[in-house]
## 1
Amino acid sequence: MTQIRLTNSATRRKEDFTPLDPGNVRMYVCGPTVYDRAHLGNARPAIVFDVLYRLLRHVYGADHVTYVRNITDVDDKINARAAETGRSIGDITAETTQWYLEDMAAIGNLEPTHMPRATEYIAQMVAMIEDLIAKGHAYAAEGHVLFRVRSYEKYGALSGRSVDDMRAGARVEVAPYKEDPMDFVLWKPSSDGQPGWDSPWGNGRPGWHIECSAMAAELLGDSFDIHGGGNDLMFPHHENEIAQSACAHGGAQMAQVWLHNEMLQVEGKKMSKSLGNFFTVRDLLDKGVPGEVIRFVMLSTHYRKPMDWTEERVREAERTLRRWRELSSGGSTGVEDERLLACLKDDLNSVGAITLLHEISKGVDEAKIDPGVLRASAALLGLLKDDMGEWLIGREFENEATRLIDELLKLRLALREKKDFERADAIRDDLDQIGLQVIDGLKQGDEPARAFVGKPGELARLSGKGDVSGQSRWLTKEARRLGRKWGVDG
Ligand SMILES: Nc1ncnc2c1ncn2[C@@H]1O[C@H](COP(=O)(O)OP(=O)(O)OP(=O)(O)O)[C@@H](O)[C@H]1O
Ligand SMILES: [Zn+2]
């Protein structure tokens, strides 16, 4: 069996992946701060780590993987949004969380095992902070609690910077209550109207970084296998998570492997809410771009490379998926192609996997490979799933069959114009034989592909689910036969 290899940001090397406990492989991924719709950039880590989750489930068994992706529902950005809109914080976070779950499902992601909301783990955060103070890694001052960065000598190891460099270059908040400008907030006081919880340091709320450390420890233990997120979080967020967790847990290494996806960009800049250069997953879905197409485009670039979103890629993905859906119906249940699995095991090489899917689909088309293999292989990427096939239904459908039939109709019209009714009628009869009723009165330049079918809905449904799409392969075969017979296939 091929070994899973992952590029560990902490060592900057591609390494063999060996879980601490193969009976329970554990992964934590930083989830969204819920005050606005997820933009397309936010969808990237959700998809990348979903593919990893699927791979781990495949290799270690579905019941032997625990995937945690949190919901940050206490954060100053949320408070600001509440103040702007006059809405309650609870309404905003509940609504945004629901949107997030719907949008992530629409792009084909499995639900993680746990989706902890920060507000439900305040007690664990307070306990962890108290522990850090007791161990000398944190101190309370003026209602705040700060992490003493100097107390953790490996601080900066993940992002490869020294504390002195960071101090020189960083825009850290200088505050009178800090021993060192680099120290970061674990707890801060809340004024009236701000969300707050009782604590040994008065009414207050947690800082963002401690949320992840506390939730990860509670659900996955002091040490677990994989920690993921976008590479924009490497510093300071992940650096701070590492420091807090190691110091609270007697030096135990928080995660064995750190994985970071690169950014989705718009004209060379990170797509982000703060820059305002974003569009949401929902915008695209509402525009009619199917979730499966979004997923495909995202996986067409390796997760460690920056990527751009272009209309051309969307169209290309749509064409490919249409074709694969058409080819993938029928046949046996199917087992995935081992080579595809090997690709994904090699640092989630989704690009190589897609290339292989093209090759497999060609084999299916030539009747050399069972369609079940295409389905099972695509499923490793979360593609071609039954419940996502709906997008094809009712859409205009263009493929090899319709193109050839189109050509046959044009030929028939040309023959009629030359008064060669015998051959024109023969074409009509041939089409009739394969269940296509020719409607007369069509002129050259009309769009015969749409007008030729007696039952217009049917052609659109041909590549839908199950047995219906079986017809589509049959139709393609028949159209090719007629194409050859009438010399319109070249
Ligand atoms: N453009 C992007 N490409 C890929 N991943 C991204 C992108 N923007 C954010 N992420 C990732 O999405 C997840 C949620 O991020 P977050 O809620 O902080 O969104 P954000 O757009 O970065 O917010 P802001 O713009 O306000 O900084 C994180 O794992 C983050 O790394
Ligand atoms: Zn986090």
## 2
Amino acid sequence: MADLTVDIVVLGWGKAGKTLAGALGRQGKRVALVERSAEMAGGSCININCVPTKALVHDSGMLMGAIVNANANANAPSEAGDSIRRFASSVARRDTLVEKLRARNRALLDEVDMITLVQGQARFTAPRRIEVSAGHDRLLISAETVVVNTGTVPAMPAVASDAARHGRLHDSTSIQHVDPLPERLVIVGGGYVGLEFAGMFAGFGSGVVLLDRHDGFMRGEDRDVADAVRALLEERGVEVVLGAEVEAVDDTGDRAVVAYGTAGEAAHTRHVEADAVLFATGRRPVTDDLGLDAAGVTTDDRGFIVVDDRLRTSAEGVFAVGDVNGGPQFTYVSLDDYRIVLDQLTGDGSRSTRDRAAVPSTIFLTPPLARVGMNETEARESGRDVLVAVKQVADIAAMPRPKIVGETHGLIKVVVDAATDRILGATLFCVDAQEVINLVALAMRAGVTATELRDGIWTHPSSTEALNEVLGDLRPLTW
Ligand SMILES: Cc1cc2nc3c(=O)[nH]c(=O)nc-3n(C[C@H](O)[C@H](O)[C@H](O)COP(=O)(O)OP(=O)(O)OC[C@H]3O[C@@H](n4cnc5c(N)ncnc54)[C@H](O)[C@@H]3O)c2cc1C
Ligand SMILES: NC(=O)c1ccc[n+]([C@@H]2O[C@H](COP(=O)([O-])OP(=O)(O)OC[C@H]3O[C@@H](n4cnc5c(N)ncnc54)[C@H](O)[C@@H]3O)[C@@H](O)[C@H]2O)c1
């Protein structure tokens, strides 16, 4: 068995780990980065999650715009074969993009002499000793510091895991290469993944049925926002079924059938047929086969690695970063985990997860739905004196950009502390929301007031201009 001694070993090519490996390698530290799959060089975000799915969402959004414009011009509607071809060509574009990013990610670390890239399955044999296996080959790595960045994988419900499979049952990775575009798609799970894929496939022309076990649609959102999202999805042909508990799944090869019971009428099992079924029911951590016991690393009851606010695990010198530590599952949070660990290793160690404020998020629908801070419901519950401004995008005269790009759905809502004029939170359901939300988040962190945002000088025509008008419409909450 070959041996390698380094200063730091990173397990898994996630966002935090690859950034840390690059930074420390360039500082002259001996670094090893272990990744089990050649197809995953660069991690989940660029290979199977954020970037490829957003390429598909973008193309689907362009297609919706084209259809709206074609209908406005009374041109002939597109044929089913066109949808299939357009989806296939979008998948090909996605694949080319991913290959380029993967090669670039590999090159970025390859060119640093102090970094050793190791391909194989990593496993602890002792607190800071890692065995890497690849076929019959074994490598033993010893390091002062170990950073676990092994991510998450789709958590399939038992009914799906147990079902016979003939190619019609998918997770968020395999569905990206479904061929041909399903005429009818059932999606189980109405969270981030379920919503993004529902919008995307509907845009490409699939009929979508979205099932979620909970009674409330988008339970974390204000009702007017959730209703607006639901209405838009329904307008595009998505059928939303709530309180649906999946009882059985059958994939005959010719067709998939999902049997589900709805709350209060469990005896009434319903069946829905589809060309494909996507399970979007959450993700589980990759910790099962990591030998964490040998390292003395503790996990919680769902298998996530337990960390403190500096991302230290229960074992000396072992950190856990990214999705695997049970924090919010976003690439930019994984990136912030990198900053915390770098500060532990090379700084004064003061940076922690407690420093995070006004962390924004976006569900990439068309248009996107972006959030930061409190929504109206949370602001009401906070007991503060609150001002709220809400406007339908189509009614915002000072924001011509949605009309320019032909996407005027949505609404914008901002909640403000009446006593301090500070922004408490914003919900942007509009074109460019994924960009404008970062400005609002920065304003919240920097203490920029609602009045200053309202009176800001913004480029024209842009989506930021909405702030000029919407924030001029703040009113006290009515109870
Ligand atoms: C469909 C989808 C879309 C998403 N879109 C977005 C988005 O738009 N924006 C956003 O911010 N977030 C998005 N996310 C979430 C985001 O992808 C993750 O939060 C992010 O990639 C964090 O990854 P990570 O750093 O935890 O590690 P990952 O990038 O998941 O890397 C973990 C790596 O470890 C490797 N590995 C695992 N076990 C071992 C082992 N024993 N030995 C060696 N290697 C191992 C894996 O192969 C993998 O490459 C999306 C998620 C999904 C499912
Ligand atoms: N744009 C982004 O930033 C982005 C995009 C995709 C994913 N993500 C990240 O990935 C994570 C995982 O996403 P996800 O959508 O898989 O999980 P999720 O936790 O967001 O949603 C899962 C949904 O599935 C439902 N569900 C679970 N089991 C079910 C069952 N048996 N029958 C019916 N419904 C069931 C739940 O009620 C829930 O609504 C997200 O939390 C997010 O952090 C981020």
